[in-house]
Write a structure and sequence with these properties.
Helices cover 33% and strands 14% of the residues. By secondary structure, the chain is of the alpha/beta class. It is globular and about 60 Å long.
Length: 422
């Protein structure tokens, strides 16, 4: 009997240890496919409830049940917007571990995106992440791997590949994709993204080189705001809406708008699993801390396709897409005669899953996910690497690393301030 009791205690002990090793899983897993929360909504926790985070409380089919921020003013404004009574956290890890949360929405500065997305994936949550997906190529790889390992549904929050008119083109990207797929423009193609084709690079997102050292506001946990970023003395311009002007947290106008502008190009060029092999830059030497402006960044793919980012606005009169057989200009104007009639004879592009709630319920991959989103985020981060080093870079699309360039490869996996790791 004593031996039986000892064996039973050992079994229970081992079972408890094993149970503790399991990660938390969303409630739809526990309830089976098609499970709905009692409210018929999937529940959501939002990390970062500044103006961006507060703007996404009302997404159809979801209910916000938890919020997190390192600024108590943001939390108060979020409670007011939601009518109060919402569970709030100052540490994102508590929100992620909350068993009542199905979806984690990450609306923080980009230097936090990778850590938070990986942590959410490990905890069995589905993930809605603001752009850019990650601040570095290495962090993007980690997110892609974590989501693949844990089976989460991931959405990157730039929608132009599947919804709305695409800036100066004034048509949905689906129509541009259809045109490219017909071959009427020929191949390879050159895409120019500039103010003349309808895209603003927002060069007001630049940093200041001589920031005053200021007192940290009482409502802000500045140490947690910095997180994995190097310690820098607090200055108002370094945080919140103007953080985009500093390399430690983002990448200026390219970091802010790059994935909005480049992800649809990647889609209609058919480059969702491929990176350019050469990145050229024409720009002033950048400051080590503050992001500056640039004149031109050129991406070239192995097949000769190019994407040109015209920051100086020198490409006046340039077509948005130029091929050996034709051109497409701002407003979907083309030099191809009778384009609309010809286009109508071709099939539409393949359908995409564009309802995130439905994707979560049915476990279908969302249209812009951790895989294709990784490649368009990498486009942004390749441009930023060339800009910071101020020289042409060669990139191995298969290995996802720079060719014979130690300095550039150090930018793929940048060090994090302890205790943070990914």
């Amino acid at each position: 009997m004593k031996e039986k009791n000892t064996s039973r205690r050992d079994f229970i002990k081992k079972s408890l240890i094993g149970a503790a090793a399991f990660t938390i899983v969303p409630r739809y897993v526990l309830g089976g496919k098609g499970f709905l929360a009692p409210s018929d909504h999937l529940t959501k926790g939002v990390i970062g409830v500044g103006s961006m985070g507060r703007g996404h409380f009302g997404y159809a089919g979801t209910k916000t049940v938890a919020i997190c921020d390192v600024d108590t003013r943001h939390l108060a404004l979020a409670q007011q917007a939601l009518g109060g009574g919402i569970k709030e956290h100052s540490d994102f890890r508590e929100l992620i571990q909350n068993p009542e949360v199905d979806i984690v929405h990450i609306a923080t500065p980009p230097h936090w995106h990778g850590i938070m997305a990986v942590e959410a994936a490990r905890s069995g949550k589905d993930i809605w992440c603001e752009k850019p997906m990650t601040r570095t190529i290495g962090e993007g790889k980690k997110v892609k791997e974590a989501v693949a390992q844990h089976g989460n549904i991931f959405r990157l929050n730039t929608w132009f590949r599947f919804d709305a008119n695409f800036y100066g083109m004034n048509v949905p990207v689906k129509k541009i994709k259809k045109l490219v797929d017909t071959g009427m423009l020929g191949w390879p193609l050159k895409v120019t993204i500039s103010k003349h084709t309808g895209f603003d690079w927002k060069f007001y997102w630049v940093g200041k080189e001589h920031l005053p050292v200021e007192q940290v506001p009482r409502e802000l946990d500045y140490e947690m705001w910095l997180g994995p970023a190097p310690y820098k003395p607090y200055s108002t311009h370094r945080v919140h809406t103007t953080f985009r002007g500093y390399w430690d947290y983002d990448g200026g106008g390219l970091g802010d708008m790059g994935q909005h502008y480049l992800d649809p190009v990647q889609y209609f060029l058919g480059k969702d699993g491929e990176s350019p092999v050469k990145i050229e830059v024409d720009a002033p030497q950048q400051h080590y801390d503050a992001v500056g402006t640039w004149r031109k960044i050129t991406y070239t793919y192995a097949d000769g396709c190019q994407i040109i980012l015209d920051g100086a606005g020198t490409e006046e009169g340039q077509a948005y897409i130029e091929g050996p057989k034709g051109k497409l200009y701002k407003g979907f104007v083309s030099d191809i005669p009778d384009l609309e009639r010809k286009l109508a004879q071709y099939p539409e592009p393949a359908p995409q899953v564009t309802d995130f709630v439905e994707a979560c319920r049915t476990r279908q991959k969302f249209a812009l996910n951790e895989q294709n989103g990784y490649y368009s985020a990498t486009l942004v981060n390749l441009g930023l690497a060339a800009l910071r080093l101020n020289r042409t870079l060669q990139f191995d699309s298969t290995k996802q690393e720079f060719v014979n360039d130690e300095a550039a490869n150090r930018l793929i996996n940048q060090p994090m301030r302890g205790p943070w790791t990914i």
